[in-house]
Amino acid sequence: MLAQPDVDGASGVGDVPKLGIELPERPSAARLRELRASASTTRHATAQAPDPTDASAANLRGRAHVYNDYCGDSASSRMDLRTAEIRDYGVSVPGLLGFAFTTCRAISRADLTGGVTLFLTTSAGRDFFVDVLEFEGRLVGVVVDLDLGQVVFRGDAHLSSDGHGAEFAFPGARLGSPSAIAFEVVAFDDATVELDWMPEEGERVGLWPVESCQFVDFATRTVVAEPGALPLALAAAEAAGLVPTSVHEASGRFDVVLDVDGTDAALRTLPGVADVEATELLEQAAFDAGADAGTVTAADAGAWWRAQVRAPSPTGAVTGAGVTIGVIDDGVDGSRPEFGGRVDVGRDLVAGRPLAANANSDRGGHGTFVAGVAAASPTARVTGIAPGARIRPYQVFDFAGCASPTAVAAGIDAAVRDGVHVLNLSLGGLGRTPPPIAEALVRAQQAATVVIAAAGNDGLVDRPAYPAEHASTIAVGATDASGVRTPYSNRASWLDLVAPGGNGTTEASGILGLGERGDYGVENGTSFAAPVVSGAAALYLQASNHRVADLRTNLGATASDRGARGRDPEYGFGLLDVEKLLTTTRARPVASVRDITATCRNAAAGRFPDVAPTSTHARGVDCVAHYGIAGGYRDGDYRPGAAVTRGQMATFVVNTIEQSGGTLPTRPLPLTDIAGHAHEASIRKLASAGIVSGYADDSYRPNASVTRAQMATFLVKALEYRTDRTLTVAEAGYFSDVTGAHQSNVDKAAAAGLTGGSNTGQYLPAGQVTRGQMGSFLARTVAYLVDHGHTRPR
Cα–Cα 20 to 30 A to 775, which of 39, 556, 561, 589? Predict the structure, then answer.
């Protein structure tokens, strides 16, 4: 199936092997009509295939996979494809296959005069098409061998019972009993003009069979470009007949699908390609309970899950207004009235295109359902948790309902760039979080974006499931209508809390939400527990004036404890309690840094050539140099980005005390690793004064880096020694990420104006302290002494 290498002059990449899947060339309109007409004379070589829609065939069983399309993208509303499905009825009838499709509006036999056609190539290299069309007054199905140019099977096709589609069953032997196929689906009008097709342009072809988003014979691969060579690698891939999707500029990655004869080794030879990785595709975290929305009322399913988490009135003061929830999923139908024009411009990360505001970007229904649970406006049947929040969709699932780590990482980064406040990830896979997603999650955390992730529906115990297992996410499991964890919800030490997801067995305990074609449906899964928490997060952020730093702590602290006391693998911290969460929205005391202007007014500016005058820490560095507390290196540089060691910190603190008029004792101490060290004298002075101490093994570790938590303790103890008074804190708890031995001193440092925390509202206690940052901390320490009359400004 692979063509010989050729030269792509347009791309300038030179000779490259052909590695992509080549679908059969579509016959011309005249040839297509001719082949269809020949079906009237085709004699069946086997018996008529069963009618899957007939009661007599009700026991047909096997496997199938659904492929999704958009509503509203057809050239004619008469024939607008919603899904295509390839079925294998081998459990009931060995070798029996089926081709089915659904439409966005109800159709009749007359709407199929142009037909819906499945063009395919098998993994054995044979080309066919399968037709469903109105022909001579009947709805028929036709299998055509394009290599032979003749019809090889004809049988009856059947409209679905609801009128939204049709199906045709046929012997797989007519396709050569393939182990796998690649395909595309096209709907025609009666003049054989293409009206709608799937997949979309710029996407990979359809592949079948699919088992948990893993494909047979055709390999899905992630290409890693050489640094700075992403455009070249993309051009080379296209020249090789591949379709690059899910391009992620931050990591230089994109995804491709190889033909059966394509190899990783050949892919690595393409210009600009550094490496090739196997692609572990993710699935949506919904659990199929076989629910039928037609039998469910609001009293049955629409009310219990809001009541279980004690959600506030949707018409009250707190609705999530001013907060944006990003939904990384398969799109959102923003045209639905339940969203009230609150769906912002999004992005399709698979095809690399924008999604218009308040438009229908739904491609499977999952993302719309998720968004509705989080933020649907009040209606007679469905109300979201935060009906005032805005929604921003990020589409990462292809038309087979699968997402790659590259696409998800690109979605997270896009959401962070767009300023999304809360990000919902109702998707996942088993194992540790792949590096592209993990790195994007860290960037989201640094940008103060709250990430809520579904725990997954595998019913596993103490197994990692990503991205929920990642420390940067808030992992959510599912409960049933009685508040008990559902059997399918994953259990692990990384679980943060649980929320209603439905128990997967009865309609009355499922989650009622926004369904197909403007209707409603019932779903179950951690996919729908996660947006309950996302909606609650939006309410909290509105009520607390966007205190992101407190959210994780307060979600756990206010959850209704279930299972074993405290946090446990079954329930995490417990069941979400929105009412209690919203009572804890009192803002923490805000740390404001001390003004050093008066203290440092005589300090000459620009003492060190490597400290930019525009640097945040430039004035502090100049000030501590002016006071003789910190100096530069022999080459004249200050090295503001270098980490501060425990030895250096000791000298900085000693200089602060002595230069401000204080004195320090010196006595022998049993520290085993400071003899002969450059900072030995300073360490001994601080240890003698009780400002520092060694470790349990009598070491001081002078070359170890100082953390931000340790720095606060250094400075607070130095001030308390120098002023002979204990620093006080009027209101504790400045930073939600500080606990343990240093918490009291961090609060004291914040109250004294020595630190204001990080730009995310957190303190980041384990972070290293740079020499530039230390310049600012020390300058504020001197300013404290000046402001309180313990020394005079110089």
Answer: 589
